[in-house]
Prior knowledge:
By secondary structure, this protein is mainly α. The chain has one domain: MazG-like (Helix Hairpins). It has 6 helices and no strands. The chain has helices spanning 2-15, 24-31, 33-53, 56-76, 81-90, 96-102. 13% of the residues are buried.
Amino acid sequence: MRDTLNRLEKVIAERRGATADTSYVASLFAKGREKIAQKLGEEATETVIASLSGDPAKLTAEAADLLFHLLVLLAEGGVSVDDVLAELDRRDGLSGIAEKASRTE
Ligand SMILES: N=c1c2ncn([C@@H]3O[C@H](COP(=O)(O)OP(=O)(O)OP(=O)(O)O)[C@@H](O)[C@H]3O)c2ncn1[C@@H]1O[C@H](COP(=O)(O)O)[C@@H](O)[C@H]1O
């Protein structure tokens, strides 16, 4: 998975400067952070709907759209795939229940 995400991250960075007419990635960057974030929200909703349909193929396709748009939003925000994976690695072994209980607020 890491290889695939890193490869796609590289493609997204390369396509960032392309012409919006010929590159979907470039067209997203041209629309700006708000639009990219909105698109990610739409893809998240479509993923939820697909999960409820009980069709694994639909869920797979929507999850791929979701991950792709997340990578574009991360690139726009200056966050790398390695940053996110390192954060997940940091949490390895820390139960979500224990983490929530340790919060002061
Ligand atoms: N992985 C993807 C990828 N996944 C999804 N999409 C596009 O994401 C869009 C989302 O589809 P939707 O139906 O939800 O949206 P839409 O109706 O087309 O768009 P809206 O008008 O609703 O915004 C579609 O146009 C898909 O083709 C992707 N577009 C590009 N990539 C990767 O990015 C690379 C560079 O793409 P270009 O920048 O287009 O060259 C490609 O080689 C791929 O590796």
